[in-house]
Design goal:
- The protein is of the alpha/beta class.
- It is globular.
- It is built from 40 helices and 16 strands.
- Helix 21 packs parallel to helix 24.
- The longest helix is centred in the last third of the chain and has 25 residues.
- A hairpin with a 2-residue loop joins strand 5 and strand 6.
- About 60% of the residues lie in helices and about 10% in strands.
- It folds into 6 domains: about 180 residues, Nucleotide cyclase, GGDEF domain (Alpha-Beta Plaits, 2-Layer Sandwich); about 140 residues, Rossmann fold, CATH 3.40.50.300; about 100 residues; about 80 residues, Winged helix-like DNA-binding domain superfamily/Winged helix DNA-binding domain (Arc Repressor Mutant, subunit A, Orthogonal Bundle), CATH 1.10.10.10; about 200 residues, Tetratricopeptide repeat domain (Serine Threonine Protein Phosphatase 5, Tetratricopeptide repeat, Alpha Horseshoe); about 110 residues, no CATH class.
- The strands form 4 sheets. The protein has a 7-stranded mixed beta sheet with strand order 2-3-1-4-7-9-8.
Length: about 950
């Protein structure tokens, strides 16, 4: 065929898996093999009416007029590749991606987002696999030949970070049908955020950045505000993600104003809190010490010294951690690779239309303009004005996006004239970087002046939010004084349309945020209007009340939904507490502490009680005893026994002095703290007694959720003390009350506790309770490593080895991530027992690996305990009920089985192999053993 398909086109992208290795090992044979590969693909494409657009090394890019022809051609190509005899190279494994969409064609080539989507789908597939998009499936499904089917692989985030794509695998009788999960962003740990806009251009910068990240431990992207440093860093992270075993993680510093908050911001990303005898910084380093991951640290310029100090420590102590930072200047550390992010290239006005259309700045303008006006396109009539706009804006991406958003109300020519008036004062001999700062400021000024007065006022006011906000928050904080509450959403929508505010989906709701450059601009406007203090105060009061309301919901059936509303608000809560501390508003600070101290999954140390209880006048405030009690819990959790005990005494004395504990919250927290302190030294019976006292306190106050929490704790400690007769009735009552309250995580927690207590007395009921707990957490999409590890141990106590193996891999991965060596040793021993009858050699290796982990954990405990510590914990602070004694007995039983199966010499030899493994190899070995055991198990 001679003409490219037009209109709606289906694109096929292919790539040869492992080609680099094959070329290195068989260079001569690969020349012939690749020629046959090319012939097979070309024949399949052309036989089904397709057009080979280009070849790229060992890949093909083809276009088809119909989706069904493209799918059939891909199937034919894979079958032919599989039938070919390849010789010394072995079978050539080709991955394929298909997507259908509109694209522009020029000079025998295509341009547009549809091509990128097809290429991304191909990149997440495996050799021998054909993956296609929902758009292709919708058009091809009804016309496929008999035997050709489509397997729904679910939604996946591709590496362009824009909307998720529902992916389908093409199946046919002669094609391989089983593959590993797609290599999408979802296949790796991390928190890279979904982006609402596509990534345009930057091919050179992306390539340079990828090389730098592979060669250096610290790479800093520098440039003026609005030049696209953050977006480039996120895209770069997505591109190199498969090279980092523990994924890529974003640390956002824009909302952090105090240098002392830098470590907390890093730690919060991973949920790290200070461990016993360690500072938060030491705990973070310990957590990351064995990780292989990429840290994207965004907006460092206002915290350079603090960020540099922490990054330098991570570089010294965590060899697998690579830092990719964005800043307006470098961190000035040895080995830092700095990459300046330039503005986007703007073409000459007299260039050909095709050349202009391919320029990054113009492509960005057109794509963003089409978001507000789908009919907009680059034409001979408007091209000169578009080029003028891009050149006048110095190719600064944020400025271009702001201008493009006006296309719905202005033509390109009108835009160009407006910018002429705005920027005529910028001409002159200033340095280019300074000019671009002025250009961006002028572009924001211009967009700001085009807004109505209420829109301007709202833009300034929403700058008070940190980390985003909801419509309700905007109405609660920003309305009043010329902005009616009923108009906030309308004004907000106008700011979104002008690209001054970004709207992002967040579950069923929408969250709004400001780009950091525009937030800084808004802060300046707010100061000019003399509203900063008033708005910060309203913001703090709003989030104090928000926390109170959400906490009430968390204690009931809507716990999961409420918790998900809470999670994105950490930075706003931190900002609220910062305001209270800065203004020495002791009442607000203590109310914030009271409303946030017990929140589910929020204890990242952001709202520290010491900040609030140390304010002037705090000692006479009615919430002061509560603040002391919260501080005692925090001290116990970090292993500071002396401070915890002192704070318990102080809290009770203050409550008695002030007479301000009518609901006995202080007394309840103190009792819990003392249970934790007893637990830390292995005094399980004392811990159980303290928790039973907590039950009485909560019951007398009528706080049923707290009763259920304390009953679960008391049951757990009795079980750990070897007293199931006492544990069972407590856990039974705890479950009954949890069901009455309807709090999902509390139900799951008590189900697990009762299952553990009944494991020996009533195995059948324990098994049913355990499965109910597992199923409940699955429906809630909530599962902590501690809970899944408890479930593994209970399943093992029940002798349910299939269930043990079903859960073990998740526990091992989570414990490895958390750096929990004692518990990982326990689970290795459990897995060894589960597989001993069928794979004795692997079980013996795992016993050796478990012994090394346990020995290392004991050594670390001996060397890290502070010298003034009264007693050292005898076990991990997160260890589930009854783990230690049970695992010891289990290991002995396993050893007996292995000695009978292997003999003493072989058992020692295999154990030595396990002892010689490092953590990463031991985990990989254990996961592989679990996978083999489950795969080979009888149906």
């Amino acid at each position: 065929m001679t003409e490219l398909p037009s209109g709606t086109v289906t694109f096929l992208f292919t790539d040869l898996e492992g080609s680099t290795r094959l070329w290195e090992e068989h260079p001569e044979a690969m020349r012939d093999a690749l020629a046959r590969h090319d012939g097979i693909l070309r024949d399949a494409v052309e036989a089904h009416g397709g057009y080979v657009v280009k070849t790229t090394g060992d890949g093909f890019h083809a276009a088809f007029a119909t989706a069904h022809a493209a799918v059939v051609a891909a199937v034919a190509a894979q079958i032919a590749l599989d039938r070919e005899t390849w010789g010394v190279t072995g079978p050539l494994r080709v991955r394929m991606g298909l997507h259908t969409g509109a694209a522009s064609s020029r000079d025998g080539d295509y341009f547009g987002a549809a091509l990128n989507r097809a290429a991304r789908l191909m990149s997440v597939a495996h050799g021998g696999q054909i993956v296609c998009s929902q758009a292709t499936v919708d058009l091809a499904r009804d016309a496929l030949p008999e035997g050709v089917g489509l397997v729904d692989l679910g939604e996946h985030r591709l590496r362009d970070l824009s909307r998720p794509e529902r992916a389908f695998q093409v199946s046919a009788p002669l094609l391989q049908c089983e593959f590993a999960p797609l290599v999408s962003l979802d296949a790796f740990p991390g928190n890279l955020p979904l982006q609402v806009s596509s990534f345009i251009g930057r091919d050179r910068e992306l390539a340079r950045g990828m090389d730098a990240v592979r060669e250096a431990r610290l790479v800093t992207l520098t440039g003026v505000g609005g030049v696209g440093k953050t977006r480039l860093a996120l895209q770069l992270a997505a591109e190199v993600l498969p090279e980092f075993r523990e994924g890529a993680w974003l640390v956002e510093l824009a909302a952090i104003r105090d240098p002392e908050g830098v470590t907390g911001a890093f730690a919060a990303v991973f949920g790290v809190t200070a461990r016993a005898g360690q500072t938060l910084e030491q705990s973070l380093v310990e957590f990351l010490r064995t990780k292989q991951l990429l840290l994207v640290v965004d907006n460092c310029e206002h915290l350079l010294e603090a960020v540099a100090d922490l990054v330098e420590m991570l570089e010294r102590s965590c060899p697998g951690v690579v830092v990719l930072a964005t800043s307006r200047e470098g961190l000035a550390l040895d080995g830092e690779r700095m990459l300046a992010v330039p503005s986007l290239a703007a073409p000459d006005a007299d260039a050909d239309l095709d050349v202009i259309a391919r320029a990054d700045s113009v492509a960005l303008f057109v794509e963003r303009a089409q978001r507000v006006d789908a009919d907009f396109g680059l034409t001979a009539e408007n091209v000169s004005a578009v080029v003028t706009v891009c050149r006048r804006l110095d190719g600064v991406p944020l400025a271009i996006e702001l201008a493009a958003a006006r296309i719905i109300a202005m033509s390109p020519a009108e835009l160009a004239r407006g910018l002429d008036r705005r920027f005529e004062t910028l001409a002159g001999g200033r340095r280019r970087a300074v000019q671009r700062h002025q250009t961006l400021r002028a572009a924001i000024d211009w967009s700001y002046e085009l807004c109505s007065e209420p829109e301007r006022r709202l833009l300034a006011r929403v700058s008070v939010f940190a980390g985003g906000f909801t419509r309700d928050a905007a109405e609660g904080v920003c309305s009043g004084d010329a902005i009616e509450p009923g108009r906030v959403f309308e004004l907000l929508a106008g700011l979104v349309a002008r690209s001054l505010v970004v709207a992002q989906p967040h579950g069923p709701d929408t969250r709004y945020r400001l780009l950091e450059t525009i937030r800084e601009y808004g802060e300046d406007c707010l100061a000019e209007q003399d509203e900063t203090a008033a708005l910060r105060g309203r913001h703090a009061e709003y989030y104090c009340d928000f926390a109170r309301v959400v906490w009430e919901e968390i204690e009931g059936p809507r716990q999961i939904e409420a918790s998900r509303r809470l999670e994105p608000e950490h930075e706003n809560l931190l900002g609220a507490m910062s305001y209270a501390i800065d203004t020495e508003d002791v009442d607000l600070a203590l109310r914030l502490l009271h409303n946030t101290s017990n929140m589910w999954r929020i204890d990242y140390g952001l709202l520290l009680p010491v900040d609030a209880i140390g304010l002037p006048g705090a000692t006479e405030h009615h919430l002061y005893p509560y603040g002391l009690a919260v501080a005692s819990v925090r001290a116990a959790n970090r292993g500071d026994r002396q401070s915890a005990e002192r704070l318990c005494d102080d809290a009770l004395a203050a409550a008695q002095r002030l007479g301000t504990d009518p609901e006995h919250q202080v007394e309840w927290l103190v009792s819990n703290t003392r249970a934790l302190l007893a637990y830390a030294i292995g005094a399980m019976q004392d811990a159980a007694t303290h928790m039973e006292r907590s039950v009485e306190i909560a019951r007398s106050a009528g706080r049923l959720p707290d009763v259920a929490v304390a009953l679960e704790g008391a049951a757990t400690f009795h079980a750990m003390a070897g007293n199931p007769d006492a544990a069972v009735p407590l856990a039974s009552e705890g479950l009954e009350i949890a069901r009455q309250v309807g709090q999902p995580s509390l139900i799951a927690l008590n189900l697990g506790a009762l299952a553990a207590a009944l494991a020996e007395q009533d195995p059948q009921r324990a098994r049913a309770l355990l499965r109910e707990s597992i199923q409940l957490r699955a429906t809630l999409d909530y599962e902590g490593t501690g809970e899944i590890t408890q479930a593994v141990l209970v399943a093992a106590r029940l002798g349910d080895w299939p269930l043990t193996l079903e859960l073990a891999a998740r526990s091992i991965r989570g414990l490895h991530w958390l750096g929990e060596r004692p518990l990982r040793a326990a689970i290795f021993n459990v897995v060894a027992r589960a597989i001993a009858p069928t794979d004795a050699e692997s079980a013996a290796v795992l016993q050796g690996a478990a012994h090394r982990l346990a020995t290392a954990a004991i050594s670390a405990l001996d060397t890290s305990a502070p010298p003034d510590r009264e007693a050292r914990p005898t076990r991990s602070g997160n260890q589930p009920p009854g783990a230690a004694d049970f695992v010891t007995e289990l290991r002995r039983a396993t050893t007996g089985l292995l000695r009978d199966a292997l003999g003493e010499p072989r058992l020692r030899e295999l154990r030595a192999q396990g002892t010689a493994m490092d953590d990463d190899h031991a985990v990989a070995y254990a996961l592989d053993a679990v996978l083999r055991a489950r795969r080979d198990a009888p149906e």
